[in-house]
Amino acid sequence: MDESKFVNDTHSFEKKGLEKKLKGISEATSSVFTGLHSFKELSSLFEGKFNIRHFPEYPKSLYDASQYILTLGGKRIRPVMCLMGNELFDEINPDAWHIANAIELFHNFTLIHDDIMDKAPVRRGMQTVHTKYGESTALLSGDVMLVAAYDSINKINNEHIHKVLEIFNQTARHVCEGQQLDMDFETNANVSFDDYGKMIQLKTSVLLAASLQLGAVLGGAGVGNQQHLYEFGKNLGIAFQVQDDYLDAFGDPEKFGKKHGGDIIANKKTFLLIQAMHACSEAQLEELHQLLRNNDDDKIQKIISIYKSCNVDEWAKELKQKYMSKALEHLEEIAVLSARKKPLEVLAHYLLDREM
Fold it and tell me: Which pLDDT score, from 0 to 100, does residue 8 have?
């Protein structure tokens, strides 16, 4: 069976009926795609390639700091999503490993700088880079990590280099814009739900979405399929952030890997806080503003108590499911056999059912 007959761009369908026929093909025929990898398998393969020293030995004080954050592990979600975006349409292109490598380096560059700006003491259950090595060295270690990301992109075939750089650079700008908005919101008492959602889209979602799209580009996907895959990643990213906000307040600190209530202590605008300000009583709102003005020992417990009394915890679960549904709708629209989409569907459920 020629797989290429079934892997066509959305725009190639002149009639909707043909797309429906493709989706309805017998499960027996999908056995030709048993070579697809799960997230876990690709994660293991990527880790095997990525788990090396990425930086020189000298100057040790600089490059040990860069290497340090990579040794803290992490789920490697974004680079693996790049590989999955590629495999959704074709066998994994060798260049996809270089792009995945660049994505993970870029992501860790943002984490180093974000932790400095957020004054976060812990990352993945360990000291943050600036806490361990000092802020100045942490800044430089993040900078050289970004350079290393571009070095990795420079290794790919010229056929895709311009499109890859266009997507990568646009995404990098969006992430910086999102981080700036996040900091601006800390001193803005009236952040709307829409404003916060836009910030999350820029800071978090676009990197997940772009990781998938970059893989799709290397897999030969057409524009329509790339757009649906990007929207899948974008909505999944927002749902992912809702879960992250939820876990900061209601998760188990030992499983979550971050300080419990860190967003609350930092007065960060989150989905939970914005909804609480909208849903609570006048008396609770006054108490909430008073708590935000101070960092008393019982601040976290009191704010979480307000969240619960306003049913913010249950609201967050419903909001997460809303964006999850949007993501899966776009995944469904991608014009490949359903069997090829299964690993991404499984990954989506894994990310949103996580406790860490």
Answer: 42
